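Most newcomers find our protein records easier to grasp once they have seen one. To make this concrete, we reproduce a full record directly below:

…
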Amino acid sequence: MDIHATPIDRATLLPHLHLGQENHPGWPSVLFGTTARAGTSVDASLAVFHFKRFLLCSGRLDAARYVRDRARLAWCDLDHYVLYLPLQRGLAGGNGLRVRVQDVVVLDLAQPAAFGMAAGEGLSLVIPRVVVPHAKGQLHGLRLCRQSTMGGLLGRLLASLAVAAPRLTEDDCTRLTEPLLHVIAACLASAVTDPALVVPDAETLGRRARRYIEGNLQRDDLTPAVVAKALGTSRSQLYRAFEPFGGVARYLLQRRLRRCLLALGEPANAGRRIGDLAYVYGFTDEGHFSKAFRKAFGLSPRAARRALQRGELSASYAAASGAHAPPSLARWLHELAGQ
């Protein structure tokens, strides 16, 4: 019996980007602050594949020191993990962290990080925190040794996925994404000491809730009770789904503050009162808004507006908004922020 391969329509292939110096110099700074040797710049040549709920990056990064400090954390929406598999050169970080070739290291994008890396090939996976919701503080800086059972399995999985990604279709992605995330979660769960770390069953509810919140941030009556009622679930189930984010109320506040920050940087809003912008996104008390804004971003709304208008916050603002990223990558990062 002859088996004939069906040609793949390139329009149905998994969305992907090829990033390099010719189309986007310095793009690694979207996630990390970077410092190269004197007289050199930091660049990358990467293929980025969008699996709807996570990004897979494959390629070469330049030698540099990569830093994600508290100032960058305050401005950046991403609350995800990065799994990095070095293929040619390892990396070294604080607290004695040493990652060898083909080890897997986990970095929590919601926590500070600093590490040095030699130029070389590697694979990165950006995955949502809700995959492993009970692991707060346990995964950051975790190294899965290539000789360990789960470290070896996870490394081979990432390598195989990178080989297959250029030929995968969007239909393949739909079928593979959730099972892949569950396998990754199981590998990570076995590497930490918390026996309660399990693949979450509230994942779908959490994603639905975040989409609902994003579409209703302008409502001043948007509360956990309103969200639970709209989704037909109990408040206790909703609270469990938002445990990775510090609770529903905290998540609501962060998203509203983030929207206000972006609004302050829009030229079209240059003449609008700050209090009016805050009111648009559900803040009825201007004093409360100013206090919460300062606590979140380290400066007052008025100072933030001036700094944005003068370009003094350009690097941090770009990290948050994707302003220095290619259009598709900026959109993908924004989509991940809402996962």
